[in-house]
Design goal:
mainly alpha, two-stranded antiparallel sheet, 9 helices, globular
C-alpha cells in the first residue's frame, strides 16, 4: 500500500498518454485543483481557499521532482496563506463586510504599488542567488542545480506579494497574477511539465476575468449604497 501511494505521487507514474505527452497523476490533479481554486477566487468565492490547500500540497511534491526549488518553497508559503485568506475573507470587520458578510474588494494605495516594484526587484536578485547555490550548500537534498533560478524566483516573489493583496481583496492583485501567469506558462513549458504550462495559460485568462469581475463587484457597492440612501 505504501509503495502504491508513493508511486501515485511520482511525476513519472503515468495516468494517461495524449498527443505524445505522458500525463502523471500528480500533474493532472495538481492542475485540476489549481484551476478550480483560481476560478473560485476570480468569482470571489470563499471556497477557493480550502481547494487551494489541496493544490499546494500536490504542487510542492511535483516541483521538488522537477528541480523548481523556489516554486517548491513557495507552496509552503501558500499553505499558510490559504489558511489566512480563508479566515480573513470570512471574518471582516463590520465596515468591511459585503452583502454576504464577507470581505469587500478594494483598490491599493500608490505607496503599495511602489513598494511592490522595489520588493520584486530586490527579492528576485536575492532569492535567485540563493537558489542558484542550493545544490552546493545542500547536495544531499538538492542533488541537481536549480533550473532557471532567477526566473523561478521572480515568480515566487511576485506570487508572495500578490497573495497578500488577494487576502486583503485588493483589485490590483489580478494585474500582478496576469504577469506571473504569463512568465510561469513559458517556464513550465520549457521544463517539460506542459500540462502545468497549459494550466497557467488558462490562469492568465481567469486572472483577466477576475480583474473584470472584482472591478464590477467594487462598482456594485455604489449602487447598493445609493439604493439604501434612496430608501
Amino acid at each position: 500500500m505504501h509503495s502504491s501511494l508513493k508511486n501515485l505521487f511520482d511525476v513519472h507514474t503515468e495516468l494517461f498518454h495524449l498527443l505524445g505527452y505522458s500525463m502523471s497523476y500528480i500533474e493532472f490533479f495538481g492542475v485540476l485543483t489549481g484551476l478550480i481554486a483560481v476560478w473560485l477566487s476570480a468569482k470571489a468565492h470563499i471556497w477557493s481557499w480550502p481547494v487551494g490547500i489541496i493544490n499546494v500540497v500536490l504542487s510542492f511534491i511535483l516541483y521538488y521532482q522537477v528541480q523548481l526549488y523556489p516554486d517548491m518553497f513557495l507552496q509552503s508559503f501558500f499553505f499558510v496563506t490559504n489558511i489566512m485568506g480563508w479566515w480573513r475573507w470570512s471574518h471582516p470587520s463590520p465596515e468591511e463586510a459585503d452583502r454576504k458578510q464577507e470581505l469587500k474588494v478594494s483598490y491599493m494605495k500608490k505607496a503599495q504599488l511602489l513598494l511592490t516594484i522595489a520588493t520584486t526587484i530586490a527579492g528576485t536578485i536575492l532569492l535567485g542567488s540563493f537558489a542558484s547555490r542550493l545544490h552546493e550548500w545542500f547536495p544531499a537534498v538538492f542533488s541537481i542545480p536549480s533550473a532557471y533560478p532567477y526566473v523561478d524566483s521572480f515568480i515566487m516573489v511576485m506570487s508572495i506579494i500578490t497573495t497578500f493583496y488577494m487576502i486583503q481583496k485588493k483589485i490590483e492583485c489580478w494585474v500582478i497574477w496576469i504577469i506571473v501567469d504569463m512568465v510561469a506558462t513559458w517556464l513550465y513549458y520549457i521544463k517539460g511539465i506542459k500540462f502545468y504550462s497549459l494550466e497557467y495559460l488558462i490562469f492568465t485568462g481567469i486572472a483577466a476575468f477576475g480583474l473584470w469581475h472584482w472591478v464590477k463587484e467594487y462598482r456594485s457597492y455604489d449602487i447598493v449604497g445609493k439604493e439604501k440612501y434612496e430608501t
